[in-house]
């Protein structure tokens, strides 16, 4: 028997038994072969004969669609009575009310029943070639031990536990353990500073923190426990800190610290799951807004899990037995939805990537793909651009024949990076899905797939809305733009189960940020272009849209052209105040390694390219060549910092603690001064 003796029946309360979909659906007599094979629970929808029709229905009859999917894909202890109760004009979002379930049961127990020895996690540790595998049975046991440990130490339903750990199995078990006992988790990216961590702990009112002694990334040891020690000094709410051991080095333990693995050994491997309401909080996740204060977006149980699972299954065409490799850190929403919840809800084998794309060398990702036999690879454009400049040989060294789908997330992927990803990494045979979504949306909202397998994919475009998603574009006057070949503010006209429910402790800010700008719609903060064919392309944050002589231009559009220059590795374009044009264009450009050109010549070339590909007005007034760009640790270019440097507002640089390498800012400041002195009249 695969379970420790005597605990089989206790793993799953009988009330969690899987419900049979057929009893809830009015299955029509006609054959729906195609749709039935694609999405079994949709087979009964009248008149739906293909994927396009199913998409239509998911929007026009969104309640029927989500009801069928929720019944089919989640295990409920008590079925929901109301599919949705939403009013976007008031920022009210509720899904599956009356329903009760447990997220950890959905991610673990039900798979332990059917395939206990299937690998749930492959931990790709920083040290290459030392990966560790954990089956669903082992992950459930680990989760139960953590759940019991937290309960024994007073963590109750409704409490919020802050998790400050690198991407590792115990971090996943900690998230799931919170879900098991009905506590919310607040994962803070383990690269944030003590101040940033403290601010999040305080805002979340956590009394429990889980961390590790030290992290290891790119061969470097990171003193996570010490950072927690500094953070909790200013967090009077914190009563206890669980410390797991990632390395063998002991750390100073205080009275409030608890040796996590040691204490876990004392716990039972069975932990009764809390029966949660659909709309109870599952987690908070802090993200940056337009103000300096991060906002704790709140996601709830059923709707979030369902949306993460469905998008994981269909956008990436995940099938049973596939190994899913999302290289995001669990500290970001991508890690939550596509390392943890989506894949585990679907019973997948999911990879936990602890390292960096270039450690110990730029072949790391593709060596991992070969070793772990990864079928879907999901990463960020910034890493693709970085690897591109090291050349094809690092990719070609490894066997990538297991790859079926390549994904991109987090920022626009420029055409050159897209083409390289598709042609070199995917050998031209894997669809590349550029997935647009946000912490706020819970899961992918716009992506080229699912669509018919032979439907076209346009490089660098997210293209098609997912099931149940109804994007609209709105102009600056608040008018809905109904034609194609047009750009506007990207909003959502309908609620969907995965969307955030509120900002922790600040529902007013939630309403003001997302629902007041365009009453009746959810405002994403992004701009988008809808092509002649009706495909969506994200043009960047609306605060990154600049206006040059009355012409609107997305900085991402200019970057896309600049990046097409073979000498350029990456670029960041910002607007700056210009006395005549309103705003001028300032481009920061990083060259590929080993490129030896005259900067003046290259500037002329880039200006020519932009003039030619977009318009003369978009051509940069200034081009500053830099060794690197200031980035967040998740790889996003900090345009805010670049803008401040260009505005000569060094006092206003703000909090740089989230930067990957703060020294990059000094280089940028010096380069800017040099450029100005050369150009002074
Ligand atoms: C998932 C995630 C969200 C913001 C979003 C947008 C940008 C994300 C994108 C993209 C263009 C894509 N973004 N995916 N822009 N194309 N495929 O990244 O969440 O960290 O909250 O960032 O990232 O600007 O509004 P989050």
Automatic annotation (TrEMBL):
Catalytic activity as recorded in UniProt: acetate + ATP + CoA = acetyl-CoA + AMP + diphosphate; propanoate + ATP + CoA = propanoyl-CoA + AMP + diphosphate
A molecular function (GO) term: propionate-CoA ligase activity
Keywords: ATP-binding, Ligase, Lipid metabolism, Nucleotide-binding
Enzyme class label: ligase
PROSITE patterns: AMP_BINDING
AMP-binding enzyme C-terminal domain mapped to chain residues: 557-636
Family: Belongs to the ATP-dependent AMP-binding enzyme family.
Protein name: Acetyl-coenzyme A synthetase
């Amino acid at each position: 028997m695969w379970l420790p003796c005597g605990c089989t029946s206790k793993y799953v309360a009988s009330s969690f038994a899987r419900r049979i979909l057929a009893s809830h659906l009015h299955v029509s007599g006609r054959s729906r072969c195609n749709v039935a094979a694609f999405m079994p629970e949709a087979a009964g929808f009248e008149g739906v004969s293909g994927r396009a029709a199913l998409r239509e229905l998911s929007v026009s009859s969104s309640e029927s669609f989500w009801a069928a999917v929720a019944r089919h894909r989640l295990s409920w202890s008590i079925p929901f009575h109301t599919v949705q109760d939403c009013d976007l004009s008031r920022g009210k979002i509720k899904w599956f009310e009356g329903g009760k379930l447990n997220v950890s049961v959905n991610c673990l127990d039900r798979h332990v029943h059917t395939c206990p020895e299937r690998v749930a996690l492959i931990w790709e540790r920083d040290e290459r070639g030392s990966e560790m595998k954990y089956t669903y049975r082992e992950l459930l046991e680990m989760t139960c031990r953590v759940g019991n440990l937290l309960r024994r130490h007073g963590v109750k339903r409704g409490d919020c536990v802050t998790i400050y750990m690198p991407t590792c199995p115990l971090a996943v078990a900690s998230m799931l353990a919170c879900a098991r006992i009905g506590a919310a988790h607040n994962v803070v990216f383990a690269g944030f500073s003590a101040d940033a961590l403290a601010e999040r702990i305080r805002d979340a009112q956590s009394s429990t923190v889980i961390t590790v002694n030290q992290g290891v990334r790119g061969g470097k040891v990171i003193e996570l426990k010490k950072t927690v020690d500094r953070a909790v000094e200013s967090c009077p709410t914190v009563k206890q800190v669980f410390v797991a051991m990632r390395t063998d080095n002991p750390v100073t333990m205080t009275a409030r610290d608890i040796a996590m693995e040691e204490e876990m050994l004392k716990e039972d491997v069975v932990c009764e799951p809390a029966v949660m309401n659909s709309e109870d909080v599952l987690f908070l996740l802090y993200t940056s807004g337009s103000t300096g204060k991060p906002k704790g977006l709140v996601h709830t149980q059923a709707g979030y899990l369902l949306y993460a699972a469905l998008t994981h299954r269909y956008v990436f065409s995940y099938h049973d037995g596939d190994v899913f490799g999302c290289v995001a850190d669990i500290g970001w929403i991508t890690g939550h939805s596509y390392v943890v919840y989506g894949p585990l809800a679907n019973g997948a084998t999911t990879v936990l990537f602890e390292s960096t794309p270039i450690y110990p060398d730029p072949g790391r990702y593709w060596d991992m793909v070969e070793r772990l036999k990864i079928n879907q690879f999901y990463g960020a454009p910034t890493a693709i651009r970085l690897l591109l400049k090291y050349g094809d040989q690092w990719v070609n060294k490894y066997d990538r024949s297991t790859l079926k789908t390549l994904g991109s997330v987090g920022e626009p992927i420029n055409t050159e990076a897209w083409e390289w990803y598709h042609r070199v990494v995917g050998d031209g045979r894997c669809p590349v899905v550029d997935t647009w979504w946000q912490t706020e949306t819970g899961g992918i909202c716009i992506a080229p797939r699912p669509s018919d397998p032979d439907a076209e994919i346009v490089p660098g475009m997210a293209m098609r809305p997912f099931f149940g998603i109804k994007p609209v574009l709105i102009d600056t006057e608040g008018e809905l733009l109904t034609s194609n070949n047009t750009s506007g503010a990207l909003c959502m006209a309908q609620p969907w189960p995965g969307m955030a429910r509120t900002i922790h402790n600040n529902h007013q800010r939630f309403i003001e940020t997302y629902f007041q700008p365009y009453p009746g719609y959810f405002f994403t903060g992004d701009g988008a272009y809808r092509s002649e064919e009706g495909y969506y392309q994200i043009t960047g944050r609306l605060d990154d849209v600049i206006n040059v002589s009355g012409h609107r231009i997305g900085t991402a559009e200019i970057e896309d052209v600049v990046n097409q220059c073979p000498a350029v590795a990456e670029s960041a374009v910002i607007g700056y105040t210009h006395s005549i044009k309103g705003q001028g264009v300032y481009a920061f450009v990083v060259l590929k390694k080993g490129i030896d050109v005259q900067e003046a010549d290259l500037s002329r070339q880039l200006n020519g390219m932009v003039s030619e590909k977009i318009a003369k007005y978009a051509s940069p007034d200034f081009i500053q060549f830099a060794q690197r760009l200031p980035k967040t640790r998740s790889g996003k270019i900090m345009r805010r910092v670049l803008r401040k440097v260009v505005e000569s507002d060094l006092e206003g640089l703000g909090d740089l603690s989230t930067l990957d390498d703060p020294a990059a800012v000094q280089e940028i400041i010096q380069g800017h001064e040099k450029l100005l002195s050369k150009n002074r009249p």
